C-alpha cells in the first residue's frame, strides 16, 4: 500500500527510521527492528479481490491469510475489517459483502508493529473509507498515526511526541478525533494526556493532561493514578473516560472538549474488586454506551455492566446475572441496545431482550459447539444488527484463531 508523507507533529525527526519506499528512491536508513515474533500462518482461507494493479502471477483466487486474526471491527451488516500482525507487519483486510470477499488494505510493511492491535486503542474507523492506525512508541521513537481517506488505497502519516503510548483512540467523524495517551510514572501511576484533531489526524493538539506528579490533583481533573479502560466522545464534544483505580472503576466526564474533567458517581453495589473493560457503543445513538465490568469476589467472578444514554453524565449499574468460578476465561458479551444483548459461555450462545435479567439459550447448528471445543477462548463478540454478528475465537495456546458469522441473531453460525 502506498503511504504519503504529510506534516508530522513535532517535526520529521520524530519519524527517523520510518522511511517509506513509496515516497523515495533513496536507500532507506535502517533502525533496530522489534523482535520478530514467531511466524504463525495458520490463517483462514478467504477470497481476496484482485488488486487495482495486479501483480504478475497473482492467482486472485483462494488465498490463505498469512496472519492470525487478532481483532475485527463491524461497520454494518455488510462491511467490516479484520487484522493481525505477522513478522512485525500489519495485515489489514476489509469486506463489503459480508465476508464473501476481502480486500488487502494494509499499510506499507516498512512501518513495523510490535504488539497486537486492538480496536479503540490502536485502530479507529468512522466508515469504510476513513480510518486511523496507531503504531505505538518503539524504543523512544515517536508514536505514529497512519490515516486513510480512501479505504486504505493510500495512507498518510503524522505522529505524537516521543514517549507517549496511546491507550484510547476515537473519531466521531472523518475530521474530528481524540487520543488519550500516557507516560508511565511507576507501577500504579501514569501521566495521562488528551490530544484532539480537527483535520482528520494531520495535526494533534494537547488539550489536557494529569499532573505527572503521582497525585490526584491536576488542573484538568484527570488523575495520575490508575490505568485507562476506555474513552468516548459524542459529536457535541461531550465525553467520558473509565479508569481502573484501586480495584474500583472510576468514571470522569467532560463537557468542554476535554479541557477539564469531573468525577461521576458510580454506585456499584456488592463488588469489592471491580475491573472495567473497553466501552462499547449502542446502536442508533451516539450518546449511548455500555462498559463491561468484571466483579471479583471470594466465590469467583460476576459480570455486570455500566450503561449510559447521555455520554456518561449518568450511569446505571446492571447485573447481567452471569458468574464464573474461574477468572482465566472471560465470556464474550455484547449489547446492541440497552435491552438486547448476547453472551458466549462454555455452554454456548445466549440472548437477552430485557437488559440481562433473563437469558435464553440459542440452539442451532453444530458449527459453534464443535468449534468451541477446538477454540475455547472468546476474543470478541459483536453484532451490527439484531441478525448479523461476528465472533472471534482462539486456541488457549494463542496460536490459532477462527472468525465466525451469524445472520439469524446468533442461532446458527458459519466460518467466514
Write the layout of secondary structure elements.
Elements lengths: L1 E4 L39 E4 L13 E3 L6 E4 L5 E7 L2 E7 L5 E4 L18 E3 L5 E5 L7 E6 L5 E7 L4 E7 L5 E8 L5 E8 L7 E5 L17 E7 L5 E7 L2 E7 L7 E3 L8 E4 L3 E2 L7 E9 L2 E9 L7 E9 L7 E4 L5 E5 L2 E5 L7 E2 L5 H8 L2 E7 L5 E6 L6 E6 L7 E2 L1
Parallel strand pairs: 1-11, 2-7
Antiparallel strand pairs: 2-3, 4-5, 5-6, 6-7, 8-9, 9-10, 10-11, 12-13, 13-14, 14-15, 16-17, 17-18, 18-19, 20-22, 21-22, 22-23, 23-24, 25-26, 26-27, 27-28, 29-30, 30-31, 31-32
Structural account:
The two termini are 24 Å apart. The longest helix is centred in the C-terminal third of the chain and has 8 residues, at 367-374. The chain is built from 1 helix and 32 strands. Mean pLDDT is 83; it is low at 5-41 and 54-61. The protein has a domain at 1-156. It is mainly β. The strands form 7 sheets. A 6-stranded mixed sheet has the order 3-2-7-6-5-4, with no helix packed on it. A 5-stranded mixed sheet has the order 1-11-10-9-8, with no helix packed on it. The chain has one helix at 367-374; strands at residues 2-5, 45-48, 62-64, 71-74, 80-86, 89-95, 101-104, 123-125, 131-135, 143-148, 154-160, 165-171, 177-184, 190-197, 205-209, 227-233, 239-245, 248-254, 262-264, 273-276, 280-281, 289-297, 300-308, 316-324, 332-335, 341-345, 348-352, 360-361, 377-383, 389-394, 401-406, 414-415. A hairpin with a 7-residue loop joins strand 27 and strand 28. It is globular, with a radius of gyration of 21 Å. 2% of the residues lie in helices and 42% in strands.
Amino acid at each position: 500500500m502506498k503511504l504519503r508523507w504529510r506534516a508530522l507533529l513535532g517535526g520529521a525527526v520524530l519519524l527517523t527510521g520510518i522511511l517509506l519506499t513509496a515516497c523515495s528512491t533513496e536507500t532507506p536508513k535502517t533502525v533496530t527492528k522489534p523482535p520478530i515474533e514467531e511466524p504463525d500462518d495458520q490463517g483462514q482461507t478467504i477470497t481476496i479481490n484482485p488488486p487495482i494493479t495486479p501483480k504478475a502471477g497473482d492467482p486472485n483466487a483462494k488465498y490463505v491469510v498469512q496472519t492470525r486474526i487478532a481483532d475485527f471491527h463491524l461497520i454494518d451488516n455488510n462491511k467490516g475489517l479484520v487484522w493481525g500482525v505477522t513478522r512485525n507487519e500489519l495485515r489489514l483486510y476489509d469486506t463489503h459483502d459480508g465476508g464473501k470477499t476481502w480486500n488487502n488494505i494494509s499499510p506499507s510493511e516498512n512501518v513495523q508493529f510490535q504488539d497486537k492491535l486492538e480496536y479503540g486503542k490502536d485502530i479507529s474507523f468512522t466508515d469504510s473509507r476513513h480510518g486511523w492506525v496507531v503504531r505505538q512508541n518503539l524504543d523512544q521513537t515517536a508514536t505514529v498515526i497512519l490515516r486513510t481517506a480512501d479505504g486504505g488505497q493510500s495512507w498518510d502519516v503524522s505522529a505524537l511526541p516521543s514517549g507517549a503510548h496511546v491507550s484510547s483512540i476515537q473519531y466521531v467523524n472523518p475530521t474530528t478525533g481524540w487520543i488519550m495517551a500516557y507516560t508511565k510514572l511507576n507501577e500504579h501511576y501514569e501521566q495521562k494526556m488528551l490530544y484532539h484533531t480537527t483535520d482528520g489526524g494531520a495535526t494533534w493538539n494537547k488539550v489536557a493532561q494529569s499532573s505527572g506528579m503521582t497525585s490526584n490533583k491536576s488542573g484538568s481533573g484527570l488523575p495520575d493514578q490508575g490505568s485507562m479502560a476506555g474513552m468516548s466522545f459524542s459529536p457535541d464534544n461531550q465525553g467520558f473516560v473509565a479508569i481502573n483505580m484501586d480495584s474500583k472503576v472510576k468514571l470522569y466526564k467532560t463537557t468542554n472538549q476535554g479541557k477539564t474533567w469531573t468525577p461521576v458517581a458510580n454506585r456499584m453495589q456488592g463488588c469489592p474488586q471491580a475491573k472495567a473493560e473497553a466501552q462499547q457503543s449502542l446502536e442508533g445513538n451516539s450518546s449511548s454506551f455500555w462498559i463491561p465490568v468484571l466483579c471479583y469476589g471470594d466465590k469467583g467472578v460476576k459480570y455486570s455492566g455500566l450503561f449510559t444514554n447521555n455520554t456518561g453524565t449518568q450511569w446505571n449499574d446492571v447485573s447481567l446475572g452471569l458468574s464464573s468460578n474461574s477468572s482465566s476465561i472471560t465470556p464474550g458479551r455484547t449489547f446492541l441496545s440497552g435491552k438486547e444483548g448476547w453472551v458466549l459461555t462454555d455452554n454456548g450462545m445466549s440472548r437477552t431482550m430485557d437488559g440481562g435479567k433473563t437469558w435464553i439459550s440459542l440452539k442451532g447448528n453444530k458449527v459453534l459447539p464443535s468449534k468451541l471445543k477446538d477454540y475455547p477462548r472468546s476474543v470478541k463478540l459483536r453484532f451490527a444488527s439484531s441478525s448479523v454478528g461476528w465472533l472471534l475465537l482462539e486456541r488457549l495456546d494463542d496460536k490459532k484463531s477462527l472468525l465466525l458469522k451469524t445472520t439469524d441473531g446468533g442461532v446458527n453460525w458459519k466460518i467466514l
